[in-house]
Amino acid sequence: MTPPAVQAYLRRVTRLLPPTAARRVRAELHGNLHQSMLDARLRGLNEPDAWAAALREAGPALPAALHLARTHTLGLALRWLLAAGLLGGAAYALQGNHPATPTPATTQAQP
For a FRET experiment, which of 54, 57, 67, 102 has its CA 20 to 30 Å from that of 111? Predict the structure, then answer.
């Protein structure tokens, strides 16, 4: 069973992420914390102290949350920006205010 402090940490770290990404990141981070806890158990700590050591090793939640948000949402922002640029270009191309196509000049016969 995961301690409430670990569950709270996982919620705080993934708070800024979209729901699907938050679930994936939470599962991976939980696995990493669990491995750190097991490593601490091998060093002789009891389970509650091992979980506390794993949280200390993971670091503060806020910097981790900001880093994860940059990692998992920057691609989304760039996709939106690219889509907006493409739609803007298409709208400009379809607006119909293009200059008239030049007509070929008629050549006069030389006397």
Answer: 102
